[in-house]
Amino acid sequence: MNFAKEQTSIQSKEKFPLSCPLCVHCGNPVPKFSSSEFCCLGCKRVYQWIQGHQLEKYYDLKNKTRAFRKLNRVGSATGAQENFHYLDEPQFLKLYSWETSEGRWMNFYLQGVHCAACIWLTEKVADLVDHVSLVRLNLGSSVATVQIDAQGSFSAVASALQSMGYPPHPVQPGESGELQKRENRVFLARIGVAGAMAGNIMLLAVSLYAGATGAMAEEFRWISGLLFLPVLLFSATPFYQSAWSAIRAREISIDIPVVFGLLVGSVGSWIHLLSGNDHVYFDSLSALIFLLLSTRYGLKKAQQIALDSSKVLHFRMPSRVKKWNANSQMDEQVSLDQVQVGDRVRVAPSECIPVDGVVLHGVSSLDCSFLSGESEAQKVGVGDLVFAGTLNLDSPLDLEVTQSGSKTRLGRILGSLETLVTQKAPIALFADRVSRYFVVAVMIASVIALARGAYTGWQSGLNSALALAIVTCPCTFALITPLAFTLTLGKLARAGILVRGAEVLEKLTQIQSVFLDKTGTLTAGAPQVKHWEVPEELWGSVLAIESHSVHPIAKALVLYLSSRVSSVLPDLQEIKETPSVGIQAKVRGSLIEIRQAEKSTEGTELSVFKDQICVGRIVLMDTVRPESKEAVELLQSLSLKLSILSGDHRVPVLQVAQSVGIHAENCFFEFSPEQKSEIIQKQNPVLMVGDGANDALALARAFVGIAVHSGVEMSLQVADVYLSIPGVRPVYSLIVIAQETLRVVRRNLVFSIFYNIIAGGFALRGEVTPLMAAILMPMSALTVFLSSITGTSRMKNAFQRIQSL
Amino acid sequence: MNIIYILLPIALLLGLGFVSAFVYSSMTGQYDDLETPAYRALLDDEII
């Protein structure tokens, strides 16, 4: 692949030279210009804390297991020691904790837990903090359950966790969560029972098929019948419930044929058993229930992995706020729920703004990319309106709260998302549509077969009705049709593309136009050095100065320089960062300033001054991903209409459009999130490719929404597809794969329908015995199964394409 | 083949035992978290 090389150049921003030392605590590379063993101050503090409490075993375990699921920076313990007293307030306890005879419990979501050592360390809190009886961490959900006794306090636990570098966030114990847990447990028990019974019945059935006769065969049939009862009465109950609710709603669902087959089969088998006839079908019926339940369980588990959007809001926001108390004339820490309109809050640099408000005091710049998608920082001063969810970059801000909680702009966006997500809930599945006709046909046919029994004797009438019900068992629809989807979804997931469900694949084949977000989708999403004109002797100083700032521009400069500067960095004096102006420091006696010039069309321009004399110029720009052009061309080859939808200004949008080959009239710029979703709604069926929460509403409203690599967690909640591969390249392959999967499914359906019509026809004429039916049915299922596994050659090519990215 | 009349009830009883063990373990939440216990096995108790 010719773009493989370019790919590495994009990713190289994540990588540091191999030779550089790794942080003693977290294992991240130590920046070159640092003389310490640690990558950051936070790690150093955590290391000292751990050493101070004789918990060095943490590092042994960590090195031994090497179970890093991702190279995650351990927590963000760089902030000031936080005050957790609000955790002990009775009001808060009432909402967040619960009491049992053993003590008081609370759940904490822990940021940054990822390996065995983390489990060991967090659970050690029970020994280290007094009155804590138990800490149990669930690594999968990152939730720790803490139990304390009457004298204990949760604030002590939280401070300990914070010092370990796992910032804790209290999680409200949702009733729905407990209910879900219970439901999962019962479901698992149902599967277990069905599996055990099916296995035992099949053992007995083998001897029956092998020709056991006489009293023993009779007893075996009776035992099978009894073993089948738990399956019928316990395991299969979800099917009855869903079939019954479908009937009441006058809809036809896939569960109706399942229940129909099950009931006719079991009633018929019991009649045969009681009348001494040797045709019983307990084996096929219990196996059917077991297989169906297992598939359903897998699907259900996958769906539950997604967090609900309210939790995401929680993690984005700090859970406590510095509020100005007019009585005590001091700042106090309160939980976000307690902030009211009119309160004064203070937001420190590099903190997320928790409320909508007006700036009372302070000047700073904000990273609004989470909300508006603008790649460049926004200057704010006294009297400006700021929104929750944006990041304060430079200096502290005092705000007067105008809206808080769910009434903020972000809260309202999230609220409308929640309703959208529920509206979108599973459209009738593909198989359901076919089974609608199928069920009706089988029902009518069976009734005809039974009615014929009036002429030929009820025993033969029942026989052919039963043969019909079994030979046309809805297996092919209920199991095999989703199989093609499941296989595709699984392969895509392994390639780094997560698709929410089978219906998304179907919808992908129906789209007519594609809307692409600019920032982070077509472009890299962060400013990069475009033009560099600085004398080489100053490089080290610039790097040293910029590594003191958290501003995106500073990060871009550090990134650019860290691989280019190899000398030891100079010491700095009198570092001063002026928001929206620049940063300055004294290096070896001379004053070095890096100032932001006025914004030009080319991007952000910086000037470097040495002792008031301008000596250098740097231009930064958000650059187009090198592979975007090819990806756009491929999408156009599928005869889709492509447009760019961005919140950014006209000039950068048009520049990007021109460089990737999208016509200027298909560009929409300076669109707010609300406007974006409106235009999407007008143009449906639309595929929206975007990143960040600013696209969340549009992603949810779009016929199909794809969230790309750097998209925040929230995008994932509302998008149908998540790409972990950066850029828009995989979109083309994804559409092709969806089309081919649908083709396989259609192929299977055509086969199933033909098979069912032919076999059903014979059964109706009474020419198929129930035993023949029991053999034919698995054979047809096997054929469809093989067809699903083989796929098509175009599909294989598309998968190879994705894997080579 | 009369031995079957002894073996079969034994087999069924054993099966019943395992099924009830499974139902018990799943209803008491032993399958709620399938990830953490695997790591927890690596952690030795300290000798005091």
Tell me how many strands of chain A there are. 27
The dominant shape of chain A is globular
Average per-residue pLDDT of chain B, rounded, comes to 84
Helix content of chain B: 55-70%
Mean pLDDT across all residues of chain A, rounded? 74
The CATH architecture of the domain at 1-173 in chain A would be 2-Layer Sandwich
Largest interface: A-B, 27 and 23 residues
In terms of quaternary structure, the protein is heterodimer
N-C termini distance of chain B: 60 Å
Low-confidence stretches of chain B: none
Low-confidence stretches of chain A: 1-19, 66-81, 305-315, 419-428
Could you say which structural class the secondary elements and strand pairing of chain B correspond to? mainly alpha
How many DSSP E strands of chain B?
0
Give an account of the 3D structure:
The complex is a heterodimer of chains A (805) and B (48). Chain A is α+β, with helices and mostly antiparallel strands and 805 residues long. Among the domains of chain A are: 1-173, 2-Layer Sandwich (Alpha-Beta Plaits), CATH 3.30.70; 312-420, Calcium-transporting ATPase, cytoplasmic transduction domain A (Distorted Sandwich); 494-523 and 626-733, Rossmann fold. In chain A, the strands form five sheets. Chain A has a seven-stranded mixed sheet with strand order 15-27-26-25-16-23-24, sandwiched between helices. A six-stranded antiparallel sheet of chain A has the order 7-6-8-14-9-12, with no helix packed on it. In chain A, helix 27 runs antiparallel to helix 28. The longest helix of chain A is centred in the C-terminal third of the chain and has 36 residues, at 729-764. The model of chain A is unreliable at 1-19, 66-81, 305-315 and 419-428 (pLDDT under 50). With 48 residues, chain B is mainly α. The A-B interface holds A 61, 64-65, 67, 115-116, 119-120, 137-141, 181, 184-186, 188-189, 192-193, 196-197, 200, 216, 223, 227 and B 1, 4, 8, 11-12, 15, 18-19, 22-23, 26-27, 29, 31-36, 39-40, 42-43.
